[in-house]
Amino acid sequence: MNVRYILMGIQVFLSILMIITVLPQESKQNQPQVFLEDNASQAYFKPKGKEAFLNKMTKIISVLFFINAIALVIVMK
């Protein structure tokens, strides 16, 4: 089996995971716009629970997605 087919499969899998982690997140526009000027109040509104988990997973999956895309470009040359 060729390496590029494995990388393409991983790319499809990562793209599906990214869709699954991004869609349930609320946009910044849906959140109340209270105390935006005060930086100290921002610490109070840190994401917790599901939001924090989805944020971390989105960052991890997106980094893996781009690393895999670069590896796929290198293999295709």
From TrEMBL:
The lineage of its organism: Bacteria, Bacillati, Bacillota, Clostridia, Peptostreptococcales. Involved in protein export. Participates in an early event of protein translocation. One of its GO terms (cellular component) is plasma membrane. One of its GO terms (molecular function) is protein-transporting ATPase activity. Its main location: membrane. The chain crosses the membrane at residues 6-23, 57-76. It is found in: Cell membrane. Belongs to the SecG family. PANTHER family: PROTEIN-EXPORT MEMBRANE PROTEIN SECG. This is Protein-export membrane protein SecG. It is a multi-pass membrane protein. GO terms for biological process: intracellular protein transmembrane transport; protein secretion; protein transport by the Sec complex. It comes from Peptostreptococcus anaerobius 653-L. Coiled coil: none annotated. Pfam families: SecG. The gene is secG. Keywords: Cell membrane, Membrane, Protein transport, Translocation, Transmembrane, Transmembrane helix, Transport.
